[in-house]
Amino acid sequence: SVDIANIYVSLRTGMCSSHLGLELSCLLHSVDAVRVYVNSSSENLQYPVLFVVRQQKGVLSWQVPLIFRGLYQRTYNYQEVSRTLCPSEPAPETGPSEQIIFVDVASMAPFNIAYELLVTRLESFQLETNKPFNFTASPSQPQYFLYKFPQDVDSVIIKVVSDAVYPCSVVSVQDIVCPVYDLDHNVEFNGVYQSMTKQAAITVQRKDFPGEQFFVVFVIKPEDYACGGSVPSSIHGELCWGLDFVHLPCVFPSSCCAPDESSSSGGRQLSSPERGPPAGSDTDSSVEEESDFDTMPEIESDKNVIRTKVFLYLSDLSRKDRRIVSKKYKIYFWNIITIAVFYALPVIQLVITYQTVVNVTGNQDICYYNFLCAHPLGVLSAFNNILSNVGHTLLGFLFLLIVLRRDILHRRAMEMKDTLLPHFSVHTLSSFLSLLAVPAFTFYCVPSIDTSFMYMIAGLCMLKLYQTRHPDINASAYSAYASFAVVICLAVLGVVFGKNGMWFWVIFSMIHVLASLALSTQIYYMGRFKIDLGIFRRAAMVLYTDCIQQCSRPMYMDRMVLLIVGNLVNWSFAIFGLVYRPRDFASYILGIFICNLLLYLAFYIIMKLRSSEKLLPIPLFCIVATAVVWAAALYFFFQTLSSWEETPAESREKNRPCILLGFFDDHDVWHFLSAAALFFSFLVLLTLDDDLDTVRRDKIPVF
């Protein structure tokens, strides 16, 4: 036998009416929406009850029990189902009109099945700006509502908050089209959408909706796994939601205001007086490139004899031809430009590609942003995050101008054959430091990709400090960048394997400790120790003969103290990583670089003061400003607003509203402050030894 029922429902849009015993109230010209609720006590999946709703603009159908399929082909059955029918709106030329709805109920069961059917008119279907709205939803009872742009509003943020423990749900913004995609398997077919657990935020602009209205759809997934929850568990309870619309302030007229009618002294280099610079440019073709071998003439002086002196002066470590040294450091400059170009272009391409995919598919789970403070412009979803990096560009060019001025003063002094020239070359190495800041804004578009350049900033700053007193034995550009390449490769492996691979942390900790020992030996013996497979055996032999057999005091006490402290710091990092295995491996490596940089800078300043040298007011001010600004910047850096290590829904739990001018968030403030902090940091490196501009190189100690 077949039990078939036809229910006729007549509704008059924009007018009050009473049908099926329902007392309804409405307002003229309001949008009517009807919700159908069904319930069946039958759990027999072989004979479900079928419901078909026929309207003027479409047909909607479902069955009870309603079946959803999840991970591993798990099924979730629901006996209660309710759906909102596609709403009707009175036409301005005809006024209120009658809409006829047919509800067909059928079952192929050989026995009678009891069911419950309830048709109600939604009293609160249209959402309002700045007015919170609460409602409930479940996997079998999705919800959607209508929002119309007021005349003076051009963009809004839809803020959604759920008080459930761990609901995995989807928030979608769809154009006014019937049928509405409000089920788990089709909600991603139209409009833009985000997955969420506790909160979500979608920015919507009037220009994207010609009808100046849209649906906000809420769908609950039957399991939490899609949002990062535990392995499948059914959600049968109802979830309570809160919804709010916030009017965006007008900051950029082109994107936020009403649409037009048709749319909707360093810097100088020293040559010893007795070996004045020959005529011609520093890039004289007669000067050959420096090779991997030390080109200092052994006939004039034996480097192994000079570098074993207990007290070294700068003249002892600046004996190479000035033109060769200048060409050596210019390689740094051109290599960093090449790296920046080849690094920036794929990133820009990646950003544009991802933004295009987001705009075409509507899937806002692809990119991780602070959606509670994301202001779109053109194809960019969070233009404020890019705009806030303008400080890096402006201050980077300002620093270039400062370096250029010092370089001009250096060349004038060379032309005057001034014998009291600065004691080291700074202009080329300082120039490339500023170039690191110029493309920096590009890498903030993609999470975690900027850390690789931060490694180079910290590493090259240490090389700059070391070059100040060791110009002849500083690392070449090729070896320095090759080392950075190895570090970046380790960082990539750490991101992939570092979360659960104990073996990776053991190998990395061993590499970290051995690299620290090898570098310490090279620094202590001023490059006289050959780095090969036998370096540790030779170092152990020296340690045995000098310290154990003779129990003598280290020949270079200052360097020994620095290296002991440095190794303790690095071994502590290695032990910490091995024990705790931090999830953010990229930040872990960055912390290693920053701590080593601060340690060496502190050592340099202490040794400078111990050598009776002075800190002039400008570098002293820069040091204080650097410390203060970095402290403030790091405070905002640690205000985590998103996390690319988690699912998009979990990441959105950390989203926060704007805190500056209603347009910038905590991370944007970090961009502003970090740009100023980098600028002052570079000024410290540039001006730290300005007190030695008139001091002869044979009077400047090496430490």
UniProtKB/TrEMBL annotation:
The chain crosses the membrane at residues 332-352, 386-404, 424-443, 449-466, 478-497, 503-527, 560-579, 585-606, 618-638, 669-688. Residues 263-294 are annotated as: Disordered. Its main location: membrane. One of its GO terms (cellular component) is plasma membrane. One of its GO terms (molecular function) is double-stranded RNA binding. InterPro entries: SID1_TM_fam. It is a multi-pass membrane protein. Residues 285-294 have a biased composition (Acidic residues). Keywords: Glycoprotein, Membrane, Signal, Transmembrane, Transmembrane helix. It is found in: Membrane. Residues 263-272 have a biased composition (Low complexity). Belongs to the SID1 family. This is SID1 transmembrane family member 1. It comes from Anser brachyrhynchus (Pink-footed goose). The gene is SIDT1.
